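During the second year of the project, the team shifted from modelling isolated chains to modelling whole assemblies. The rationale, set out in the original proposal, was that interfaces cannot be judged from single-chain predictions alone. As a representative example for this report, we include one of the complexes processed in the last quarter. Its constituent sequences, exactly as entered into the pipeline, are reproduced here:
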Amino acid sequence: MTSVPTLRALVSRGLLAVAAMLAVLPVLFLVSLSLRGTDDVQNGGWLPERLLWANWPAAFETVPLARMLANSWLVAVGATLLTAVIAVPTAYVTARAGRRGKRLYSVLLAAYCAPPVVAVLPLYFLLKSVDLTNSTIGLALVNGLANVPVAVWLLDGFVRRVPVEVEEAAWVDGLSVASGLRRIVFPLITPGLVAASLVCFFLAYNEFLFAVSFSQSAASQTLTVGLSLFQGDRTVQFGQQAAASLVAIVPVYVLAVLAQRSLVAGLSQGAVK
Amino acid sequence: MTSATAAPGRAAQRGTGPPDEQDHRPDPARPRRAAGRVPLWLAAPAIVSLLVTAAYPAVAGIALAFTDSSLARPLREFAGFDNFVAAAESVAFGGSLLRSALFAVLATALSVTAGVAAALALHARGGRFGLLGAVLLLPMVTPPVSVGVAWKLLLAPVGGAFTGLWDALGISGFNPLGSGPGAFSTLVLIHAWQWTPLVTLLVFAALLGVPAELREAAALDGAGWWQTLRSVVAPVVAPTVVAAAMLELVLAFKVFDLVAVVTAGGPGVSTILASFEVFRTAFRGSFEVGTAAAETLVLGLLVGLVLAAVGLLARRVPGSDE
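Output from the structure prediction step:
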């Protein structure tokens, strides 16, 4: 590249500017809507004529948003912990156990390709038989297991990058393979684990199909289900709906921005092979 | 996806991480020694999770598809192919498969094109992903239900963001969700909006692996932008683009939330995609569990066939040979 911006550089900057605007526009519009009264919304336009905060408390009263937010966090954190606990030793096997490891990796990815709706009915009957429908625990279990392939996919590359010689030296010194995984490999793949956990947290937090199929009771509903109910209610105002949607979005955006570097490094290094 | 992403060899070494010496060493005994020592019980939890989320649903799905069931009492009696006949006669099911396939192809084409363009533009301004990159990633982490709500409000004929634009264009009160083709295209656009960032990120990372010497050599030889892109950049990033396209196909076949929130399948049946149709059959209205199970089997087969076919095609791309 030269120091004088070429036409191509200008075009590519313009493209990026448009893309960045497109990326944030719908959410910014939600922010604008959430600060407007009914009349102000109907007048259309991008900006509020007068700032109105009432939609925010009102949204928390129309549906039990606080409860739903808590449920979503419970489900997402529980699911992520379960995924991480399963995926770390599994990624070690897929990366280190030669042909068998590779086969397991392929089976996991193939399982992930099936649309989740295929598993909904069988899982519904399974959860019901152990009394875990309408339960955040049941939902956390299902999400946690369902996301294992994603975490293994991301972690596999990180394990491969740990030089096997370090482990071999430790084995010679009498360390078992499992302890080698815990004391040598695990600390070295922590950046990957952080990224994989974030991705799995987002997946579980954003999940809708399992949540709406298995957990319809008011006590166990997650935010995504709550938002979809808001939808069905015709009397609900745009402003409240926008506020409620933002309640769901804000935590993931804060996490994504705070953990931006780790997320990008993890996704790109783990996934590009 | 497996074929392209599982290939560790050359592509991995081009990545940003430290080189993995093990693969370069011409010492076949070394990896095998490590492989032999890895205790396979470490994968036991993953096997259990596969049993619960894949094997059991497959078996139970087949059982449900060939029996008469209700949500309260599954597997009441053997029903032969009755459920498949019911699925074939259902108003929306056959069409929903076609719509899902069309949706997947269009959304994938759109997000791969836009994602590659964005990755090239990002890469052209230097090797850093940076804050701009992070902003571009935001759609990907937004809950799809919120995405649906946002776009629905954005496009609303009254109070939407574009009412002024429609007025200016002389189509006041235009509602893209009002007609079948309009609603379908809108869903494709929204889905591509959400998942283009994934392509951008993966392709950007692959672009970092294009050797600088090659670029310089191409420049010395007088190659233009397009020529360099074709003969230097494309061969390196092609496997990643193929992998990203497979991933996008998989994601597009999974779509459910957007349909549920933005159109609920309407107008008419024009946006009933397969996942939504199965859900509707099982959990709404008449709770036809057996029919829904038959539908999931057919859907599973279709997705498997499409992905296998695309996977085979993808093998022809140089660099993703495995």
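The CA atoms of residues 127 and 133 of chain A lie 5 Å apart. The mean pLDDT of chain A is 89.
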